Amino acid sequence: MIPIPKSRPQASLSLVMSIAAEAWRKSNGGAPLPESFVLAVRGYYSATIGEPGNDIDVYDDAFFIVSPTGITAWNGNTDPTRYGWNGNANDYMARLRTGCWWFISRMHRGRYQAFGQGDNQVTVDRIKANGTVSHSATSSDFGIDLHLGGINGTSSEGCQTVPPYQWEDFRRTLNALIRNSGVDKFPYILVDGPIN
Question: How far apart are alpha carbons 149 and 132 in whole angstroms?
Answer without folding.
Answer: 24
